[in-house]
Each structure stands twice: as structure tokens, then as C-alpha cells.
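hey so u asked for the seq, here:
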Amino acid sequence: MDILSIIIIGIGLAMDCFAVSISKGIHAKRYFFWLTFRMAFLFGLFQAIMPLIGYFAGAGFAEYVKSIDHWLAFGLLSLIGGKMIVEGFKPIDPDSDKTVNPFSWTSILSLSLATSIDAFATGIVFIPFPTVIWRAVAIIGLISFIFTFIGMFIGVHFGKRFHLKVEMFGGFILIGIGLKILIEHLINHY
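ran it, C-alpha cells below
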């Protein structure tokens, strides 16, 4: 797997972080650097750790799934992407977390875990590419960190004016990467 594919997967996975940080920015009304840094760090950390866990959990089964790994990657990325697209159609409730401190440790940790569940399944995609897993983990974490910062800025400054559906964009990206993996394998082996 090449660096560009890893970056594109990282961007697709970071869309959940991006969407959540825009929402948090809308609620914040003001840009707080340290709160944003804490949220970006935790989102990036969870997005980096989860594919690694998924990779090692799936590596034990690598021999059994080697002949269908390309179909598995396509299926998982399509399911994750499809889920993100469906979630993009759901209306945003601006009052959903007004009773809770949106920047509390509990809130940010639970959001970090929730946004990184997709990254866990994506770890399985890297099983056929063991030489890139550490690079992929670093890139995915860094992209999520950066997208969280950008999302907070957009949420604070522009979020109320535009109703952004970035989950849908991320979903299409992940489906596209899954299709690319499938096509490359089919072309190279037939």
C-alpha cells in the first residue's frame, strides 16, 4: 500500500473527528486553544491506536483470510463508509449536548472512542501490508489531530452559517479506497 492510499484512508477516518469538532466548535462559541489541543490529541491518539489493535487482532487470522483479504478490505471499508454516509443524512440536533460540559474529560474520551471504532475495523485492511502498519498508524493519528483543530476553528467561526455534512464525504472516500484495493488485487492476480 502506498503513502497516498494511507493518507486518503486517514482523511476518510478523520471525517468523524472533523464533524464532531465542528459541532463542538459551534457549541463553544469561542476558540479555546488548550481545550482544542486536548480534544485533538485524544482524537488523534485513539484514531492511531485503534487500527493498530485491529491489525494485531486480525493478524492472527491472516493465514485464513489471505485469499479473500482484498474482498474483506473492500467490504469493511464499504460498510464503514456506508454507515458514515447514512449518518450524514441524519439531522443535527443543536441542543443535543447543552446539559453536559462539551469539553469535559468524560465527554471527550467517550467521543474519542466513538469516533475511532471505524478505525479499529480499518486495521484489518493493513494485514496484507505489514511493512506499513506503523507508518499508517502515525499518519492516521496525525491527520485526525490536524482535522480536529481545523474542525474546531470552522465550527467556531463558520459552523452556524453552513450546515456541513462531512461524514458523507468521508464515507465516499473510504468506499473509494476499498474499491481501489479490490481493483488493484483483481488486476494483479488475473
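The chain has one domain: 3-189. Residues 33-59 form the longest helix (27 residues).
lmk if thats what u needed
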